[in-house]
Amino acid sequence: MKFIENIGKALTSIFSNIGKFILFILFFFKYLFGPKFYFKNNIRYFLNVFVSSIPIIALTGIFSGMVLALQSYTGFSRFSAESAIPNVVVLTLTRELGPVLTGLMISARVGSSIAAEIATMRVTEQIDALKTLNTNYYNYLVTPRVLSLTLALPIFVTLVDFIGVMGGYIVSVHRLGFNDNLYLLNTIDFLKIGDYLSGIFKAFVFGFIISIVSCYCGLFSDKGAFGVGSATTNAVVISSILILSSNYFLTELFF
Amino acid sequence: MKIEIKNLKKRFNDNFVLKDISLTIEKNKSTIILGQSGCGKSVLIKTIYQLFSFDDGLIFYDGKAKVDIDKFSMLFQYGALFDSLKISENIAFTDFINNKTNFNKKVISLMNDVGLDKSIFNKYPSEISGGMKKRVAFARALYKNPKVIFLDEPTTGLDPINSDKINELILKVITKRKITAVTITHDIKSAIKTGDHYYFIDKGIIQDKGDCKKILKTKNKAFKSFISGADFKQ
Question: Is the pLDDT of residue B232 over 70?
Fold first, then answer.
C-alpha cells in the first residue's frame, strides 16, 4: 500500500510541476511587455550575456569544425570521397552541430548562472524585496534573461557556423592538403540558405528553452545552499534534455 | 495607518502556521511581534504586506479590505540588498530602474538620516559591513516615504553595540517621520526600547499582548518562559 502511495505522490508531484511550469510560461508572455518594460535593464543583460559568452562560443566553433574535418576524412577516404568534406562540414555545422553544441554550451555557461543567481536572490529574500518595491519580477528578472538568450543564441550559432567552417578549412588545407580556393568554393556553393535558416530557427527555440527553464528552476528553488545547488543542476540537466529531444522534432520539421 | 487583523489563518500544505491571529496595529505606534523562531512571525507580516495570500480571516487597512502596498515598506532580516547594484542604486531602486537620474540628493539625505557615510555611495553591498547593510536596507525602506514600515528582526546578526545603535535609529526615524512600525523580534531588550505594544505568538496563536514597558511583568507562563529562555511545556 505504501508503495502505491509513493508512486501516487511522485506522479502528483511531476504533474503539479509540469502545470506550474506551463503557468510560468503563460505568465511570462502575459508580462512580456507590461506593466513595465525595463529597456536599459534588458540591453544591459543582453550585452553582459553576449560579451561573456563569446570566448566559449569561439572555442566550441573552432574545435568542432576541426574535429569534424578530421573525422570526415577518416571515413570518406575509405571510399575516395574526400572531396565531400567541405560539404559535410558546412552542412553538419549549420543544420546540427552549430545549434545543438551552442545550446548545450550556453546552457552550462549562462543557464546555470541564471538559475544560481535567481535562486540565491530567492534564498536571500531579494525576490520578496522586489515585490515590496512594487516591481514585477517577471519584468525585472525573467523578461531580460529570456529575451537576451532567445535573441543572442541565433547570433552565437551564426558565429559557431562561421568559426567552425574556418576550423574545418584550417585542418583541411594545412593538415590534409586540400586546395584552399576549392575548399571555400565547395563550401559556399553547397550551402543553401534553408540549411542556415533551419539552424537559426533551432537556435531561437533552444535559447527560449534554456532561459525559461533556468528562470523557473531559480524562482522555484528550495531554500538554502542545497536549494541553490539543485536549481543550478536542474536548470542544466532539464534544458540539455529538452534541447536534445526538441532537436529531433525540429529536424523532422525541416527534413 | 491602522491595521486590524481578525481570525487570520494561513497554512502551507497541511501545516497551519497561523492558526487564529487577531491583533490591532495602531496608527503611528510601534507594534512588536515576539515569538520563537519558526512560530510564524515573518509569515504574519508578509501576509499583512500582501506578499502571501491567507486561507481565512480578515485584514482591514484603515477600515478597508484593500490597500495600495506602495504605502508599505519592509526591512528584511538580512537586508535583501541587490548584489549587482551600487548602494545608491539600491536605496533609490524604484527610481533607478525607471531611468530617473535625479535621486542623488535624496539618497545622500537618507544616508545621512540613517548614519551612513557618503563614501559608500558608489560601493557594492559585498564591500560593506553587516551593520551598514542594515542601515542601507533601512534607507531603502524609507525612500518611498511609507506610511507603515515592517521590520523583520532588525538587530539579527549584529553585536550588542550595533544592535543598540540600530534600535535608537529606528526609534528616532519612526518618531520623526510619524510612521506606523511593525517589528518582528525575539530580542526583549529591543522590544522594550522601540515598542509601544507587543503581541507574543506561540504555536500559531496570540498567547499574550500588552504594553512594551510592562513586558517583564507579564503573567503569561509561555511568555515568561520565552523571556527567561526556559523551555515551556503546555
Answer: no
Q: Judge whether residue B231 has pLDDT over 60.
A: no
Instruction: Give chain B positions within 8 Å (CB) of A131.
Output: 51
Q: A193-219 and A2-30 are packed helices; what angle lies between their axes, rounded to 10 degrees?
A: 120
Q: Containing domain of residue B219, as a range?
A: 3-228
Q: Do A125 and B93 touch (CB under 8 A)?
A: no
Rounded to 10 degrees, the C-alpha dihedral A19/A25/A30/A32 comes to 160
B234 found inside a domain:
no
Q: Does residue B44 contact residue B23 with C-beta atoms inside 8 Å?
A: no
Burial of B187 (0-12, 13-18, 19+ CB in 10 A): buried
Stretch B5-23: mean pLDDT, rounded? 89
Q: Is the pLDDT of residue B107 over 60?
A: yes
Angle (CA) A174-A177-A181 rounded to 5° is 85
Q: What is the ipTM of this complex?
A: 0.86
- Count of CB atoms situated within 10 Å of the CB of A247: 17
pLDDT tens, position by position, A41-56: 889 899 999 999 999 9
- pLDDT tens digits, residue range A108-147? 999 999 999 999 999 999 999 999 998 999 999 999 999 9
Question: Averaging pLDDT over each range in A110-119, B45-54, B116-125, which range is the top one?
Answer: A110-119
Q: Scanning the structure block, which residue is given the C-alpha cell 506593466?
A: A35
CATH of the domain at B122: 3.40.50.300
Does residue B39 belong to any structural domain of this protein?
Answer: yes
Q: Per-residue DSSP letters for A150-172?
A: HHHHHHHHHHHHHHHHHHHHHHH
Facing residue for A132 by CB, picked from B72, B77, B98: B72
- Report strand pairing: B56-61 vs B30-35: unpaired
The three cell numbers of residue A29 are 508572455
Kindly state the cell numbers that stand for A190.
Answer: 553547397
Q: Which amino acid is at B165?
A: K
CB pairs under 8 A between A and B: 45
Task: Show me where the domains of chain A are located.
Answer: 1-30, 37-254
For residue B97, list chain A residues with Cβ-Cβ distance below 8 A.
38, 41, 135, 140
Q: Which of A144, A195, A59, A106 is nearest to B97 (CA)?
A: A144
Whole-angstrom Cα distance, residue A98 to residue B13? 45
- Whether B124 contacts chain A with CB within 8 A: no
C-alpha cell belonging to residue A219: 524562482
Whether B76 and A125 lie within 8 Å, measured CB to CB: yes
Strands B30-35 and B180-185: parallel
pLDDT tens for A204-226 read 999 999 999 999 999 999 888 89
CA distance B205 to chain A (A): 25
B233 within some domain: no
| SS3 state at B133 | helix
Residue B128 lies in a domain: yes
